[in-house]
Amino acid sequence: MTVSRGARDERRMGASGAAAERTEEHLGGAEAATESAIAGAKRGNRPEQAVLSRDTDLGKTEETRAVIEGMVDGLNDHRIADIGEFFADGFRWMGNTGCGTKNGVKEFQENWQKPFQAAFHDKVCIDEARLFMGEWAAAFGRQEATHGGEFMGVAPTGKRIEIRYMDFWKVVDGKIVDNWVMVDFPHVLAQLGVDVFNGEGWEKYDGRSEG
Fold it and tell me: How is residue 3 annotated by DSSP?
């Protein structure tokens, strides 16, 4: 069979076009890889995020809610001796600086609950927001109390004060196993006339703007 010059030219053009397309695809892929590498370099090696909570069992949400709500009611009832109802044997309470770390229910009772209730009387805990996700719960809010005992070297003033806090809890098998805590003790001390930042707190920048 004889192939005309026109047909041969069409074949050559088709082959050239396909080759050009492959080249463009290759260049496009290379450019994409280069852009990805540049973006990665700009970001740096980012740390892995949310490792502790990413595999939570969402089916446990309501169980977690019941445990946390019961525990907060127990704290508002000033329960100490039987507060272990809500906590696992190996429970860990991990606070910010000034609050310390309590390992086990006994340390929580002796080294947090009792000193706290000795310093602050007529205390009520008010969670302003709560979130529940599987085995995890979080809250922030305030405690309202009367400064009726020595607190961090400050003699009782009788002042009614606000104690702000944030909590993250992990609940396993119906018991709290971990509690990460932030309590705003500098704010408490400020209400008692003590500035722990000696005038250098960054509130001094509040309300300022450039230009």
Answer: P
